[in-house]
Each structure stands twice: as C-alpha cells, then as structure tokens.
Amino acid sequence: MVPRFSYFRTNSIPDAVRCLSQVGARVHAGGTDLLGCARDSVFGLSTVVSISGIAALKGIHETPEGGLRIGALTTISEIAGNPLVAAKYRALSMAAAEVASPQLRNQGTIGGNLCQKPRCWYYRGEFNCLRKGGDRCYAPEGENRYHCIFGGENCYIVHPSDTAPALVALGASVTIEGLKGRRSVPVEKFHVPPAVDFTVETVLKSGEIVTEIILPPPAAGLRSAYRKVRARQSWDFALAGMASAISLNKDQVIHCRMVLSGAAPVPWRIPEAEAAIKGRRLDVDTAAKAADAALKKAEPMSQNAYKVPLFSAVIKQELLNYLE
Fold it and tell me: Residues of CATH 3.30.465.10 domain(s) within the chain?
C-alpha cells in the first residue's frame, strides 16, 4: 500500500532542490519507478516533489560544440524516436527503444531511467536485506539466476537501465543541481558500486537532481550499437546486453568503448575487451579474444552461470556486426 504523503508541484529548479532537501522527500518525474518503490516500501516517503512542470528540463538540442543536450525530463520515447539521436548516437536510440514497454517509454524519463532503483526481488520484497539496513545480501545463497556476475561485493544486484550503458559507451555526462550549485559527472562515474557504498545507487546527494545529459560530439567515423537479450521480448530487463562505440579504419579498430548491461550493480565497462581489440584487425578471432578477456573475471553464482556463455555470444556477435 502506498503511504500517505504531502505533494508539491514546482516549476523551478531552485524550488525543487529546496523541497527535496527535506527528510523523506522524493522527486517525481515520470513516476514509473517512484510509485512501485512506494508501494513496496523500498524507502520511506513523506513528501513527493513533482518536477514535471519544469520546462527547462525537457527537450533535445544540439550543443554549440556539435554534441547533444537532453533534458532530464525528456521521455524515453522521445529519445528513441529522435532523428538526431538516431543519426549521431545510434546506441542510445537503440537502447531507448528497448526500455520496458511502449506505455512506460511514453511516461518514463531519461533522468528517471538513470536513477531508478534496482529490481532485485529481495530488495523489492519483504526481506530486510543489506541495502535496506539488514545484515546480509540474500542472493548468494538464494534465488540468484538474474543477479550479477561482476562487481557483486556485499550486494549482488544488477543495474536495470538500458540507456546508462549506452551513455557510458558514448562518453556522456550528467549535470546535477543542488543546494551547493551545479556540477557535472561522467555517466561512467554516476553510479556507485556496492563495494564503495551499498546503501546508495548514485552519487546524488540530498536535494540534488539530474537536470540534463550532455553527449559530446561523436568522433569522425564513430559507430555505436546496443544489444539486449531478455526472457520476454515484450518488456523484460536485460539478462545480458552490451553497448559499444567503435571507430574503424577499414577493419582495424582505432577506438572502442564496450559496456555490459545485465552484468553488474553498475553499467559494467570492460576495458580488458577494449584492449584486446584496439589496434587490431576486427575478425572472428579478435572478437573471440575480446569475449574471453571480458569474461575472465566473471564470478557467477549457483544459478546464473548461463550468463557467461550468453555474454560471450553477445560480445562476439555485436563486434562482428560492425563488419557488415
């Protein structure tokens, strides 16, 4: 049951920041994750602060440098259908199109997609797990078939966002505003691994909100893509996926960034795989070496070892797709 709460609707960022600095205040944008978390008692809730009326947080615009600025309230559907995004940042366009269902893409925002809470059934269920103040994570000895194979120290959640891996691969940053002003954080550093702090998911402090996402100008010849494997095509979260951004000179890899989804508590960049292909001719053998390098440190649990060959296939197939 959703608890009783006060509701404030604000039309300015300073007002939103001030209201969100109160204990128990939560931001409301699209609301697709907020309502589920409130119903499942994932966190305390005394005040809902709606930012959906702040016009400055909406829209997709080119920057003077040739990149893109995407307002945090821009819907996932708007991103998936935007021709500029599709032309310059194909991985993000593909990732946005894979998020949830059409109804949720129409309602959900890019800021919310980056900041959403994990979908672990222990965290969302009636378990006092470590992330909710308990003394242990239940996944290692419990039902863990959808949990992580990388970065699972203390807590073994999987980061649920499809857009975040694409944004990391594309070198994007988020702009954050709070009581102490504005700051910019690379999306790669925005999410907090449980080894650092298992009580939070992002670097956002009390009263802070994401206001925009900045994509840098793509390098000449840069190509990108996103692949998602899921149990149900209609709307599931990723079992395994990869965002990649690669520049080729003929078939030689000049630049690459590769980031896994469905693998870890945060979007999981795989520098070992990047090193295995950079400067090399991209072919079947190189793709296989990249997959082996990426998965060398994987630590599957009792029920999710299937993810290792699944990720291997995704990595190899996606790399070879760049040759077509």
Answer: 55-115+158-215
DSSP 228-246: EE-S-TTTPPPSEEEEEEE
For residues 242 and 315, the answer to whether their CB atoms sit within 8 Å is yes
User: How far does Cα 170 stand from its chain's mean position?
Assistant: 13
Taking the C-alpha atoms of residue 215 and residue 217, their distance in angstroms, rounded to an integer, is 7
Q: Which segments in the chain show pLDDT lower than 70? A: 233-235
106-140: b (≥16 Cβ within 10 Å) or e: ebbbbbbbbbbbbebebbbeebebbbeeeeebbbe
CA dihedral 53, 59, 63, 66 (to 10 degrees): 160
DSSP letters, 211-226, are EEEEEPPPPTTEEEEE
What Cα–Cα distance (Å) separates residue 307 from each residue in 66, 99, 149, 304, 315?
A: 38, 20, 8, 6, 12
Distance CA 113, CA 167 (A): 12
Q: Is 64 helix (H, G, I), strand (E, B) or coil?
A: coil
Q: Residue 235: its pLDDT value, please? A: 64
CATH superfamily of the domain spanning 222-321: CO dehydrogenase flavoprotein, C-terminal domain (3.30.390.50)
Angle of CA points 198, 14, 111, to nearest 5°: 45
Instruction: Identify the CATH class of 55-115+158-215.
Output: alpha beta
Distance CA 41, CA 124 (A): 8
Q: Rounded CA gap, 78 and 119, in Å? A: 24
CA 213/CA 72 separation, integer angstroms: 7
Angle between helices 284-295 and 307-321 (to 10 degrees): 140
State the maximum Cα–Cα separation within the chain, in Å, rounded to a whole number: 61
Task: Report d(CA 155, CA 256) in Å as an integer.
Answer: 29
